[in-house]
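Re-run with default settings, no changes from the original entry. Doing this only to confirm the output is reproducible before filing.
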Amino acid sequence: MKFIPEGSLSKKSLLSSHIFILCLFFLIASCSTKGPDSPLKSYPEQTGNHKGSKDRDFSYRKDRLYPEKQNKKTTQGQESGSFNNPETLADLKGFADDLDFGSLEKAIENQLDAMFEQEPTTPVRLGTFTLTRSRLVETLEAFLKILKQDLTPEEFKKEVTEKFVLYRVGKGKKDNKKMLFTGYYRPVIQASPVRTSIYRFPIYKMPERGFQQVKLKKGIQLVGTHTGIKQVRKRDVDKAWRKLTREEIDRKGALQGQGLEVGWLKDDLERFFLHIQGSGVLEFPDGSRQGVGYQGSNQYSYTGIGKLMIRDGVIEISQGSMQGIKKYFIDNPQDISKYLYQNKRYIFFTLNNEGPRGSGGGELVGGRSIATDKSIYPAGGLAFIRIKKPVLDENNKIVRWQPISRFVVDQDTGSAIRGPGRADLFFGTGQKAGAKAGHYHERGEVYYLIKRS
């Protein structure tokens, strides 16, 4: 933009007067323009405790999620793409769900509790689209209201069809996109709070222990913390331990004797699979239990040992499940260290008495929570899936695979879950959940729901 008309450059007096007026204009504007409210004022603390209530009222979220002073044009400008593009929508014949809606309500409410603490205008990605986190919240809350109306299947389908658009995701052509699902669970593992002759394999917490609280810039928020506050590890703490590999920690004892042990397990194999699951329950000899959850990791990426074993010809592709890998190592214990140490990634744990939480901050619900690549799909996304599930006998053996469909909430991610065609289904806690998750390797359809604007 030219502020000085052409031909005026030769007129020094006129140029000087224009510059003076222009500077005076910006000075007045900068003094009179009101800056944005602080995050703590724009998003007041929660005023009601709805936990434990079946009929939850989320109206108190309104000021936090949709503050009156929020510039709606700016928020809408952060969204890209159109959910009314016919190429992205799916017209399903129905929305049959093989589980009770109570578990779905719980998953939605758990995720809303976490999103309540997050910046609503933050842009998130959903496939090829960009939308705001508040759009996800609107979707979850609108769907939750429908669930509580006790509608007939026909009424339910009508409500969902009228109020939401469905966006099919995955790999493949438009009408045949699929996602490969694996399963994960929360194992219950025999353990000891102290080292004994039986329990000799430690699990560790992270070496750095110091924390400090710092103020955040508006728009930056850590999942699960109060608005504007984030806990960060002190920068003066030595982080050389992040370069330690699994072999250096577990075989060479690089962290031994530093008071970092949070529990002791019976064997290295159980410890390895606890690392893969990311959380678990320790069952001590006296019958008491203690939950452990993911705290952090070293700097290395995940390497799947199943692929390495198949490559080397020691197991068949059909034996690449958790159960198949465990069976091979039980029969061939001499190969445990050979393969386990090829996965350099190491997980650190913290003791807690909560249920398993996803990377999106919400507590997971068996059968209702999924994990995806968070660079592609958003935490808090509501989805409808069509897939097969394993049916077990009384001995937790799979007897058949049954086609099902259900609604799920995208709440988590995983180091092995990468790309648009991968997802992980959380099966719950315990042996039965592990029997299902360990063999799970199914391709299915995934449709994200977005509330119509």
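The chain has 13 helices and 17 strands. Residues 1-77, 210-237 have pLDDT under 50 and may be disordered.
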